[in-house]
Specification:
By secondary structure, the chain is of the alpha/beta class. The chain contains 12 helices and 21 strands. Helix 2 packs parallel to helix 3 (167-179). The mean pLDDT is 97.
Length: 360
């Protein structure tokens, strides 16, 4: 049962905003000292619980996983400090996890929507172009305000990446989601897919490895953020090696996208494009790696405070979630050192507190 926790260290209420004097009382944050002594005193640098903005709870390499495995995935993320997950497509209904107070908060996107035989087997609802709009409406109603499209994948006839659906159909699908009150995000590896999605009025881009100078001002002007999933993009060289014999053009393209991954993220950041941290855990990436993604964004050139913002304050604001404020849920992580000066400290958290309960 949540009691009173005193946070004795520096509280980061924003990338460059510090306060002292924070407590959790019955699971809610307050800057006012309670009249009774705390049940626990936790020292260190206090931040909002991390956000994994591209994660797949309930999904494994072969598709659906049993509920026990989904619970283990969520627990692994939680113990690493991820206290809010935007699930970017799951093969199973994970609404039951939302009822668990010991699990991270979960924003679901329903199932991926992909072109028939143009994505990983058993991951997505697969449709032809004439079924895309209806599939989007259905998944918009099944999720928590997000729809996930697979914007491109290898076209085996062309031997390279290609958009999954025609431009006009994508525009109609995005509009259908908006009509249902949902936002749309899309898996986008290739360059041309970004043009298609921006033309359609997309709300977010996942991966964005095909980012070119012509896309950057459009992303900034349209307010479309990117979730680069850099630790997943690190798998591209292996994908290229496996495909080289049969699809040499595709292999060369994937390797080129990998080579410029950091440069493209930094160009977008410098131009004012919003960037959020996502691991893509749940397929080939194991859960609990949000610290690795934050540090990868820093390696790409984002200053430490900006890399943290991608998984903390900015990400929570974008998703409409509480941060560190009076009366907010006590969902915080505590670092041993100031993560803006020692970024690696995010990989060895001192404490994790969820809903006022000390998890670790």
């Amino acid at each position: 049962m949540a009691g009173i926790i005193e946070f004795s260290g520096t509280v980061l209420t924003g990338p460059n905003e510090e306060r002292r004097g924070l407590w959790s009382v019955d699971g809610r944050l307050t800057f006012h000292r309670p009249p009774t002594s705390p049940d626990a005193v936790l020292g260190g640098w206090v931040l909002p619980g991390f956000v994994d903005a591209h994660c797949h709870v309930g999904l494994g390499p072969g598709g659906v996983v049993p509920d026990a495995m989904a619970e283990e995935q969520a627990r692994t993320d939680r113990d690493a400090g991820t206290l809010l997950v935007r699930d970017a497509g799951a093969a199973s209904d994970t609404r039951w996890l939302q009822q668990r107070h010991d699990m991270p908060r979960l924003i679901r996107a329903g199932r991926h929507i992909a072109r028939s035989r143009r994505y990983l087997r058993d991951f997505a609802v697969e449709v032809e172009p004439d079924g895309l709009v209806e599939a989007v409406r259905k998944q918009a109603r099944a999720g928590d305000g997000w729809v996930k499209l697979v914007g491109d994948w290898i076209d085996r006839d062309a031997g390279d990446l290609a958009p999954s659906f025609p431009d006009a159909v994508v525009r109609d699908a995005v509009q259908a989601a908006h009509d249902e009150g949902a936002r749309v995000t899309a898996h986008c590896f290739a360059e041309d897919t970004l043009d298609q999605m921006l033309d359609a009025g997309i709300d977010c881009i996942e991966h964005a490895t095909g980012l070119l100078p012509r896309h950057v001002p459009r992303l900034a002007a349209q307010g479309v953020p990117i979730v680069p999933t850099l630790i997943n993009i690190d798998t591209f060289p292996d994908i290229a090696r496996q495909a080289e014999a049969k699809f040499p053009r595709y292999a060369e393209h994937m390797h080129a996208l990998w080579e410029r991954r950091y440069e493209r993220v930094y160009e977008a950041f410098e131009a004012g494009v919003r960037i959020y941290a996502g691991t893509d855990a749940g397929s080939v990436i194991r859960h609990g790696r949000i610290a690795d993604e934050i540090l990868s964004l820093h390696r790409a050139g984002l200053p430490p405070a900006a890399a943290l913002d991608a998984a903390c304050w900015g990400a929570r604001t974008w998703l409409g979630a509480e941060g560190i404020s009076e009366g907010a849920s006590a969902d915080v992580v505590i670092c041993r050192e100031d993560p803006r000066r020692v970024p690696a400290t995010v990989a060895s958290l001192r404490h994790v507190v969820l809903r006022g309960e000390v998890i670790r």
